[in-house]
Specification:
The chain has about 130 residues and is mostly helical. Helices cover about 85% and strands about 0% of the residues. It starts with 7 loop residues before the first helix and ends in a 5-residue tail after the last helix. About 10% of the residues are buried.
């Protein structure tokens, strides 16, 4: 009779706890980004008349928070199926991973496009001579 160092039940409980921590971190990142974006939106709306450029910057930052939060959520899903997953769990993970990967792809692409537009606008603004 061999003695197990760590029981499977103990590992499952530990991983379950870690999954909750990682998913909570992802949710907190997304929540923080949403609060930050709303605050920036409100402050910008009250202070400036030309809002399009500032709103694009806010959207870009919010997108970064969303991408990072989704990565944490996906990490939690992967960790959840780390110990003896069933075929149902593997299928669910594959579906969740596919959905989150597609979301992440489009968010990342939109962030890159927004960044390029902002940089283009900044270069265009910098090329105009300032009359004194």
């Amino acid at each position: 009779m061999t003695k197990e160092l760590v029981s499977e039940l103990g590992v499952r409980e530990l991983i379950g706890w870690l999954v909750h921590v990682i998913e909570a971190a992802g949710a907190l990142i997304i929540f923080t980004g949403a609060v930050w974006a709303f605050t920036g939106f409100a402050v910008t709306g009250l202070r400036k008349r030309s809002l399009i450029g500032e709103f694009n910057k806010i959207r870009l930052s919010l997108g970064r928070f969303l991408v990072l939060g989704l990565e944490f959520q996906l990490a939690g899903d992967v960790l959840r199926t780390a110990v003896a997953p069933s075929f149902t769990e593997i299928g669910q993970l594959a579906a969740i991973a596919a959905i989150r990967t597609v979301l992440n792809f489009f968010l990342t692409r939109e962030i890159a496009q927004e960044r390029a537009e902002i940089e283009h606008d900044q270069k265009k603004d910098a090329s105009y001579p300032v009359n004194a």
